[in-house]
Structure formats: structure tokens, C-alpha cells
Structure prediction request, 648 residues.
Amino acid sequence: MFESLLNALPVALQLGSLVSLVVGTLVGILIGALPGLNPVMAIALMLPLTYGFDPVIALGLVAGIYNGSMYGGSIPAILLNIPGTPAAIATTFDGYPMTRKGQGGLALKTACWSSAIGGIVSALALMTLAPMLAKVTLAFGPSEYFWVAVFGLVSIAVLVGKEASKGMLSALLGVIIGLVGVDAISGAERYTFGTLYLVGGFELLIVLIGLYAIPPVLEMAEKPNASYFNADSFRVSAGDGGFGLIRRYWPTWARSSLTGVCVGILPGAGGNLAALLSYNEAKRRASDPDSFGTGNPVGVAAAESGNSADNASAMIPSLTLGIPGNLIAALVLGALMIHGLQPGPQLFTRSPDVVFGFMWQLLLTAMLLLLLGGMIATRLFAQILRMPTALLVPTTLVLMAIGIYTVNGNVVDLYVMLAFGMLGYLLNRLAFPLAPVVLGVLLGPMAEQNLRLSMLIYQNDWTVLFSRPISLGIVALLTAVLFSQAWRAWRSQQHS
Amino acid sequence: MSMTYRDLFSGLAFLIIGAITAWMGKDFYDDAAYVPLGAGSLMSLFALPLIWRSSRRLLVGSPGGQAVATALVDHPGRFLATLGCCLVYYVTLPHIGFYTTSAVFVLVLAAVLGERRPKVVVGITVVFITLLYGLFAMVLRRPLPVEFFLAS
Prediction:
């Protein structure tokens, strides 16, 4: 295998491949930075255009867009509190407060380095551990997925914010919002009130942009027309250099990358869950957990390395077993088939140059992020903050409108976004954390579907949720998180 | 209004939302009712400590938490003007066209929020709308509401 891997390196370093990697990474950063546009859409639009190209060039573009968009999503998340992609939710927690404190440049630099490191670790995992890790995915059944979703939801609800009960209420509100629409299993309508619009449920992106992006824009609008951000935000060169960042964040990057790789191999889990779990773990291990959410760069480092580490590892089940773990992996399989290659275990023996070349391309694009993301995109986008508040507010609102409108081409989505914006503004002022709401919308349906699948498979035997070893491990981890949080709360109460 | 009153009212609101969710959920078909019932009941359950703590603080007169919370809206005039402009923008968008409405929206809201440099406002608006047009209409070819002067 390692011989095939080495033989594929010159293929990945061909001029055509390198050009496609640079173009793909730049397009990916741009796509990720624009809310409403996502890498799935960009790759889907681009694939038919690559029909006449060599498969290595086509896959180079895919690799560039995929890794570039994951970092690109962090740019509006840090500068404007708008997650460019759902995976950038956790980046907003500390990225935007850093911008408000005048450390926007440092936050972007941290995000860029963290994305690159996460991407590199993930690509290395794909290169070296793919066949072994693929077997792990087969051990996960519906009950394990149910517990993964519950773990993500409950741990974030308890850890984010000051009061656990408010976090849980926010999470449950998200779960209820996620219930609206046609039930995927029975086909029954739930909470639609006879309205056609609600039959399809609420689009995640609309809820996300409404809850997260509208409240800070309204707060910005309420301030007098002056520079809303600290002038130091413009300085991308602020803070440590690359080696300083490595020295400071390597434990966070190691933990988050490992989390991202593990989440990535689970089909359907996605970068958003990887980022939130990594953030959660970084906060839990920190000596100053209260500083998270107020502009702690470790939070940005954890979230970004976590979501980028999910990228290449999500390709493991698709390349080794032919089972796509996410939509992009499905598109990669589509790209391989367009070029006459059959995904699955035989792919490694029949077309080693293409498959191992693709692994090298994922590694190279992760490295390119430091150059293209750090030196060009970050400096360019940081200039956004120079705009006066009175112009930043309407231009941001137009950007949100175009992002939301292009999702379904429906104006009603804009009203819904505004309504969620008002809800987010109110919850903010009532000191309810917003992250668990979004997480509830995201993980609620995942938990429900897997719970019901378990019940269907095991004929309503509830003990199955507690009898499988992996499920028990996750339950034990969840219990440990809850107990450690309760212990901390009790100790801080004793101190005060 | 103090944070204690806000906690009390938000706790009551969550209690009611949870109860309604569970009550409506009980009628759903078979296992489609599991999660609605569970989520609604849990929401009501988690609302109770919030209501209990805030009512106890109010009855005992203990300050617990922030005695005076930040205002719900810092500057009602600017807040309402922004919301009003957004609503007008969304209503007119499908009739007048995306790029025209967006340009007018940026110009008007910038003026409403206190930007008094016409050259800066017009310059940034033109550059911004041109970039959007280039990206969405020419490169990505995304369908957006057609301009009124181009509609046949």
C-alpha cells in the first residue's frame, strides 16, 4: 500500500493537478465565505464541467473546494458572526467575540492554521488508517448514532452558558423546531398547522443565519455610526507567528483533530458535530472554562481543527467500502463513476494512482490553506471591518438575503429568517445560549430517527440502547461530562 | 425589568410551549409521538427550576443574579427603523427585482443609520451590487427576482 502511495505522489504534483488544487482552494474559500453557498452545490455544479478532464484534475478541484470551503466558512463566522457553513457554528462562539475585542486578525490566523492542521491530520489518517478505520464504521448501529447525537446535544447544552437549565431549555427548543414538518419515517405531518410552507420543515441554514447573524447585525444597527470594531481587528499580522501558534495550540489541535477524524468516519455525522464536540472538549479541559464564549482563541482553534479534521476522514467509508458518509463523499463517488472508476475495495488495486493521488491532493490543499487562506483570503476579507457601521449593516443584510433566497428561491424564507432573528435577539437578552438551539435543530432529527430505527429493528426493546458496548461507552462518557459539570457547579457555589 | 422577572416570564413561556408540544404530540401516529411527547415534557420539567428559583428570589427579595438586566432593546428607534427597512425590502424584492431593491435598501438604510457621506455610500453600494451581480448572475447563474425594467 505504501508503495502505491509513494507512486501516486508525482501524479498529484503534475502541473494540471497543482493548478486544479489552487483554483479549487480559492473557489472553496470564496464559497465557504458566502452564506447560502455550500461546497456541495459548488462541487455539484462543477462536476459536469470536468467530464472531459483527467480524473486527477477533477478530483483536485473537489479536494480544493472541500478543504477551502471548510476554512472559508470561518471568515464570516469570525468577522460578522454569520457561519458561512453549518460546520462553522462553533467558530462563532469565540471568533466573533475576539473580533469585538480587536483580535479579528488573530482569530482569522488561528482559524487558518487550525483548519490546515486539522486537514493535514485528517489526510494523513486517510492515507495510513483507511482500511482499519473503515471497519469501525461498521460497528456503529442506530443505537450508537442515537447516543452520539444525545451526547453532542446534552454536553453542549450543559457546558455552553452559565445555567445548565437554560442550556437544556434552549436545546429542547431546537429539538422542537426540528420536529416541524413531515416525519421522515411515518410520513405524518407534525406541527405544520395545515401550512404548506411548514410541511418541509425549517431549513437548517435559515434557522442558523436567523438565530446567529440577525441579532449581532441588529445590535450593530443600534450603535451610533462609528467604527463598531476595534482598529486592531484589521491587523492580520497581530499575535504569534506560525511557530508560536503551533507551540500554543498543539495539544488542542491534537485532541480536536482526533475527534474530527473519529466523527468523520461515522456516516452522516458531519463537520458541525466534529467542531462542537472538539470545542466542548477544549472547554472542559481548560483551566479557565469561563473565558470560552468571550473570545478565547483556544475555542477557535478547537472548532476549526475539529471541523477540518472531519474532511478527509469522511472519505474513508466511501473510498474503502463504497458507502458515502456525507453528501460530498457521495459526489466524489459520482466523480469517480463519471470517469469510469468503480468505488469500493477494488478501487485501490485497479486505479491506485487516482485514489492515492486524491489522498495526496487532500493533504496538499490542507497545506495550501496556509498560503492561500492566510496570505490572500484572510487579508482581503479582513478589510470588511473597515466599512462604517451604517454601511456594514445593510450590506450584511443583503448578503444574508441573497444567501437565503438562493436556497429555495422563496421569499417566505426571508420572513422566517427575520422571525428566527427576533427569537435569537430575545433569547440573547434573556441570557439563553443560542448554540444549543441550533444543535437541537441539527441533532434532534438524527437522535429521533436512530432511536426509532433501533426500536423498529429490535421490536420496541428499550434495553438495546444500553446493552451494546459502544453505546455503553458513550453513555459512560455522557455521565462523566454531566458529573464533572455538576461537581464544578457545586465547587464554585461552595467558593462563593 | 430585573433579570428575575425575565427568568420568571421566560420559564413560564417555556412551560407553556413544552406543555402544548407534548399535548399536541400525543395525537401523532404511533412512534412519531415519542420524541414530541418526550421533548415537550422535558421542556416543561426544565422550566420548573427556572420558575422556582425566580419566584423564590422575588418572594424572599434576594437579589440573586443581575438585579437590573440590560435593556431588551438599546435603541428602539434604530432597531425599529432597521426592522422596518428589512420588511419593506423583503416585500418589494420579488416585484422590483433583486439588484435594484438591494441597491435602494443599502442607500436608504445607510442614510437612516446616520451615514452622511453620499460619495462613500454610493461608491460602496455600486461596488457591492456589481460584485454580487458578477458572482451570482454571471458566474454562478443563480435565479434571483428579475428587475422590473427587464421583465416582459
